[in-house]
Write a structure and sequence with these properties.
418 residues; alpha/beta; UDP-n-acetylglucosamine1-carboxyvinyl-transferase, Chain; 4-stranded mixed beta sheet; 14 helices; binds uridine-diphosphate-N-acetylglucosamine
């Protein structure tokens, strides 16, 4: 099994280009079920994307990847489509459930494995199913599978989500794309990745509008046979490297980004004393002398993302005084805390709140990655710690971070995979 070895305390300087967003690419790939021919640019070459491609190939789409150009072309003219997402392809990547909406919309039926839980919580799909039922689908759960059917096609409806879910919003938009009439979705997730999906669907001929937390959809047919779409940058990857630079950067430039999407994160880092310069398509982070404490809570966009909670916690260990971070999205997303404590962090968990007493001196240790973002927080801790850190189970990292070691090594980090 592969491990990462990091020799910490090395100041980083250089440039990191931010990759395309994994969380935007996944629903857009699911959306290609609705399309004919698509070219997707700025695709991140990470494992979750390859798993989604395997799922689409299983369904019957023809896909080719130009790895050096980060382009995927999809041809969906095959008549022999399977409306099935098997357990083996959904169990490792929950976003597989996003093929439910488009399969139902286009082929009027789908059989999708229930994704099951994962390290960060039970992760149900009740909100996805609630929306699809309101659009007229008949749904049964049997033998670990969702059986969905809409014999006469889906019909537009008014749906208010009882709580905000990125995946459920995306599945509902995908299903309503060609439903008869008008659909109004209320209390939606409005993450930049949801907006990128809608941009893609509108290029395909859709009539979808976002107004506040409302999404309005006029059901329509695809009117473009061939389209091209460039996926937005990965704001979580950007946030991760911003925090890495705040921890050990001398001067790091992060490019291929649009700073307007991450204003909140930039403000939070500034409040913590991080010195940064925001330009049109880059952020430059300079050596920060004193990190200040902060209290905050993870929230749906435009709030602070749960996907950056573990990384920010590492920065909190460097701050003077007591910082608090409340995890309000997932029930069990403090798996990195025991490992950070083994590296010398002073963190106490009280229900949904992590109380971080800083500054503490982190020292290298052998630690274990538990999920994607927890893993990368251990990489950040390793970069700032004394001596050597060994991170086990790094396959989690490969699900979502493209060329992580290479990008850090280019900035002079002492990191290698064995
Ligand atoms: C997406 C992101 C993930 C991010 C999360 C929250 C992708 C591929 N993944 O995951 O990186 O951490 O948004 O920003 O884009 N919930 C229900 N019922 C449902 C669906 C969700 O109760 O049917 C709950 C979840 O358990 C969780 C909360 O809603 O507590 C938010 O989850 P959701 O926004 O759906 O996350 P994902 O779309 O799975």
């Amino acid at each position: 099994m592969q491990k990462l070895l990091i020799n910490g305390k090395k100041e980083l300087s250089g440039k990191i280009s931010i990759s395309g967003s994994k969380n935007a690419t996944l629903p857009i790939l699911a959306a290609t079920i609705l399309s004919h021919q698509v070219e997707l640019k700025n695709i991140p070459l990470v494992r979750d994307i390859f798993t989604m491609i395997d799922l689409l190939k299983f369904i019957g789409l023809k896909i080719s990847i130009l790895k050096n150009k980060k382009i995927i072309t999809i041809n969906n003219t095959n008549k022999n489509i399977k409306t099935l997402a098997p357990y083996k392809l959904v169990k490792t990547m929950r976003a597989g459930v996003l093929v439910l909406g488009p399969l139902l919309a286009k082929y009027k039926k789908a059989k999708i494995s229930l994704p099951g839980g994962c390290a960060i919580g039970s992760r149900p799909v009740n909100l996805h199913l609630l929306a699809l039922k309101k659009l007229g689908a008949k749904i049964k759960i049997k033998n670990g599978y969702i059986f969905a059917e809409a014999k006469n096609g889906l019909k537009g409806a008014k749906i208010t989500f009882p709580s905000i879910s990125v995946g459920a919003t995306e599945n509902a938009v995908l299903a309503a794309f060609n439903a008869k009439g008008k659909t109004i979705l209320k209390n939606c997730a409005i993450e930049p990745e949801v907006k990128d999906l809608i941009k893609f669907l509108n290029t395909l001929g859709g009539r979808i509008k976002i107004v506040g937390r409302k999404i309005l959809i006029i059901g329509c047919k695809i009117n473009k046979k061939h389209i091209t779409h460039e996926v937005i940058f990965d704001r979580i990857e950007l946030g991760t490297y911003m925090i890495a630079a705040a921890l050990v950067g001398k001067k790091i430039i992060l490019d291929k980004i649009n700073p307007s999407i991450i204003r909140n994160e930039v403000d939070i880092l500034k409040k913590m004393g991080v010195r940064l310069k925001v330009k049109r398509s880059t952020i430059e982070i300079l050596k920060s002398n004193k990190i200040k404490k902060i209290n905050l809570s993870t929230k749906p966009y435009p709030g602070f993302p749960t996907d950056l909670q573990a990384q920010l916690m590492v920065l909190m260990t460097r701050a003077q005084g007591i910082s608090r971070i409340t995890e309000s999205i997932f029930e069990n997303r403090f798996m990195h805390v025991p490992e950070l404590k083994r590296m010398g962090a002073n963190i106490e968990i009280k229900n949904k709140i992590a109380i971080v007493k800083g500054p503490s001196k982190l020292t290298g240790a052998e630690v274990m990655a538990t999920d994607l973002r927890a893993s990368v927080s251990l990489v950040l801790a390793g970069l700032v710690a004394d001596n050597r850190t060994i991170i086990n189970r790094i396959y989690h990292l490969d699900r979502g971070y493209e060329f992580l070691e290479k990008k850090l090594k280019n900035c002079k980090a002492r990191i290698r995979r064995i």
